Amino acid sequence: MYSYISGKIVGKSTNGIVIENNGIGYDIGVSGNTLYDVDTGEIAKIYTYLYVREDEMSLYGFSREEEKKLFLRLIDISGIGPKMAMQILGGYDLKTLTVAIASGDVKTLCKIKGLGKKTAELIVLNLREVAAEDIVSYDGNSVGGIAGDDVADAVSALESLGISKTDAVRAVSEAQKSVSGVENIIAYCLKQLL
Predict the structure, then answer these.
(1) What are the helix and strand counts (H, E) for the chain?
(2) How many whole angstroms separate alpha carbon 149 and alpha carbon 134?
(3) What are 11's strand-pairing partners?
(4) In DSSP terms, which residues pair with 86 in a beta bridge?
(5) Alpha carbon of 100 to those of 48, 52, 96, 104, 123: distances in Å?
(6) Vertex 77, ends 76 and 83: CA angle to 5°?
C-alpha cells in the first residue's frame, strides 16, 4: 500500500522512528541498521511495508530498498513474522547477512539474538540462491572488501567451471580474507574447492 514515505525524522526509539510528512507523524518500526542510518531532524526517504492482521496493523520501514527486499523474503518463510525478520535484519549489516545466507553460514546466523539453529537452517534453505544472486548484483558496492565487479567476475568464472553459485559465493567470501584481485581470488578458490 505504501511504497515509501519521505519526510523529517522527528523521533527515534530503540526499535522505531517517527517520520513527519504533511503534518502526519508515521510511527514506523525499523531495524538497527535503518535506525543507525537516520538521524533526528534530517529529511529521509523510508521504504515501507504495511503489515495487516485482524488484531494488528504495523508499519515497518527501511533506509534501503535491498533491506526491504530481504525483509519481504524473510516474512515469506513459514514461522518468521515481521518482528523476527526485523530482529534478523538488525543482527548484522545487510552485506554480512546476505553473505552468511548465501554461503550457508548457519553458525553466524545463530549469533543473532532470538534466532535458533532450525530457523537459521530454514532461512538458508529458502534464501540461499537468491542471496547469492543479490551479492553478485550489488553494483559497485563492496562485499567484504571485494569490489562488486570482482565478486561478479570471480563467481561467474567459478560457475563456468561447474561450481554452484552458492559454493562459488562461499569460496569467494572466504578467499577475500586472504587475497585480493580477481585472478588471485579465483586461484585461491580453486585450490580450496578442488
Answers:
(1) 9, 7
(2) 13
(3) 18
(4) none
(5) 25, 30, 6, 6, 10
(6) 80
Contact in structure between 13 and 29 (CB atoms under 8 Å): no
Q: What is the pTM of this model?
A: 0.72
Segment 66-102, tens digit of pLDDT: 999 999 999 999 889 999 999 999 888 888 888 888 8
pLDDT per residue as tens digits for the range 34-59: 999 999 999 999 999 999 989 989 99
The C-alpha atoms of residue 35 and residue 85 are separated, in whole angstroms, by: 15
* Per-residue cell: 4: 515509501
Radius of gyration of the chain (CA): 18
Share of the chain above pLDDT 90, in %: 42
Give me the amino acid identity at 68.
Answer: K
Concatenated DSSP letters of 17-56: EEEEETTEEEEEEE-HHHHHH--TTSEEEEEEEEEEETTE
Which residues have CB under 8 Å from 69's CB, separation 6+? Answer: 134
C-alpha cell at 40: 533526528
Say yes or no to pLDDT of 163 above 90.
no
Q: Could you give the 3-state DSSP secondary structure of residue 158?
A: helix
Residue 153, C-alpha cell as written in the block:
567476475
